[in-house]
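Inputs:
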Amino acid sequence: MENAKAVHQAAEILRKGGIVAFPTETVYGLGANTFNPIAVARVFEVKKRPHFDPLIVHVASQGDLDKLVSEIPSDAKKVVEQFWPGPLTIVLLKKEEVPEIVTSGLPTVAVRMPRHPMALSLIERAGFPIVGPSANLFGYLSPTTAEHVRDQLGNQIDFILDGGPCEVGVESTIVSFKEKRPRLLRPGGVPLEEIESVIGTVEVSTAEVDRPAAPGMLPRHYAPRTPIVLEWDEKDFNSKKNKKIGLLAFQEPISSIKFHHVEILSKKGDMREAAANLFAAIRHLDTLNLDLILAEAIPEIGLGRAIMDRLRRASAKELPIDEAYRSD
Ligand code: TXA
Ligand code: MG
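Outputs:
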């Protein structure tokens, strides 16, 4: 289907209260009308997402932001000017009109303006901001192609808008302006260094210290079914033991273990390319019936911070949800 026609059809479905997967530059989102609580409830249901995990609202212009939030602090204005449209989400005090189901009862709302042209025209055509959690089952890897969405949610949603593979590949960076000092809630597509070059020091939350304000900050998230190990030593693994081990390598693998399969994130060691390939590479490894996936650590600078965050969470041990949420 021609793109414009598909966008038109998807917008029509959203207006009627349906739910639609749509492309963004980060990952695919599962969209619904922000102001239709029943449609939003279906998004939670389909994703099997707990209701305490609030959604990001997607807008098509800076002007749309005024309809959602009561006040925009000057630092928030600065980052919006600099990074929108793009992979940055800001958290601000919400207006009353934003339904509770969207924000899980929080006094704040997370908002971003994506830069994927199909996402922007979908929001414009629909005529309202669109909630958009990543279009995957809760806790699993985010989809970076329409195919990924189809595989997991295809028969439960009303439409999938195909905008090709996502250019960034990791979710948006989330910064909260709820308190006096801006705070990073989730590293993502806009590197922290770039944000700090515009507004100065940003406080960094760690799941260990803070009660997770964003369940993307749950210790275990973005996880495949095959166990992933991030901290490992070659001598602990012996391929002779008949175990099928896969490797997620940044560049050329440095290990001498004989792997069943190796996924290389970026041959030339380019962080952007590595981020764009990350989820698809793990998904592929997850289809191979491996016993284990070993992942190589990468430098935590620029996008490396978001990549390592996802790898840590993908490799974290499963905890019962109430356990994961306990702050002490
Ligand atoms: O790149 C992205 O942000 C993608 C694309 C589709 O836009 N969306 C995405 O949504 O990653 P989701 O739902 O998978 O992750 C949203 C995160 C969650 O961890 C949620 O807890 C957090 O944003 N969040 C939403 N509202 C919040 C709020 N008011 N305060 C703190 N965190 C919030
Ligand atoms: Mg998600």
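Remarks. The radius of gyration is 19 Å. Residues 208-212 have pLDDT under 50 and may be disordered.
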